[in-house]
Amino acid sequence: MLLCTVWGLQQVAIKLANAGISPVWQAGLRSLGATALVWGWASARGVKLWSSDGTLAPGLVAGLLFAGEFALIFWALEFTTASRGVIFLYTAPFFVALGAVWLLPHERMRRAQWAGMALAFLGVLTLFGESLLLGSGRAWIGDLMMLLAASMWAATTLTVKVSPLIRVPAEKTLLYQLGISALVLPLLSLAFGEPGVFAPTTVVWASLAFQTVIVAAASYVAWFWLISQYPATRLSSFSFLTPVMGVLAGGLLLGEALTPAVFAALALVGAGIWIANRPSPEAAPVPVR
After folding, report:
1. Which residues pair with 197 in a beta bridge?
2. How many whole angstroms separate alpha carbon 181 and alpha carbon 184?
3. Backbone phi, psi, residue 21, to 5°
4. Among 19, 73, 249, 252, which lies 20 to 30 A Cα-Cα from 242?
5. What phi and psi values does residue 257 have, to the nearest 5 degrees?
6. What membrane topology is annotated for this entry (predicted)?
7. Cα–Cα distance between 174 and 66 in angstroms, integer?
């Protein structure tokens, strides 16, 4: 629940920092700072980072997916609001559940899960309908980018779950992603011709610091540790709390308009993900490894 609160605030922090730092450049700075922090944390705890454990290939894949995901997230918030963006981003459990059908056969989809996924998809269509039919400007571009970012987040989760990354410390899994994105994102920013830091203020730097220290370093170490301990679909059921926090944060901190469509989509996505990922009545408790 704490992680969901932090991630709900993430979209607001990105939006605030976008006012003074180009989106992809900002994402690169965040990854660079978080890489240094997680590296220091891992070194202090004696975590083995250089052992030969078969994680290089999946680590590279996870890192590229992570870079693509956050380039899309930061750029998308130039077009859409934080309130809308967080709803689209947290359709990721939808993609996790679909991917698990093929990649995690021991986590089979039940009828209730398919029904939940249908509800979540209906919520996405509700927001797209508002963008396309009610004249929400270019919001649909950002919405679509957020949806693609959600699919890449799900792909990262599944990559970790089905590869040797599941057996290594969470810090090493995270460093693959942070380190690779710290290299890729600045190059991508230069390729796009972004100006970089163009209007630094106290709020801009504080927003970047929050993302770097709290979100990208501390919360992600905790997240990948959780992935290594619990079933991916079961764990993802908690994610529906994040859009709630994100929508509230967007409305309260940024003054974003919270339309009926936003609340309808929030209810549908949240309810759908919860229904899809709740344990069946006959299921035995899942032991923690």
Report:
1. 21
2. 5
3. -135, 135
4. 19
5. -70, 125
6. Multi-pass membrane protein
7. 10
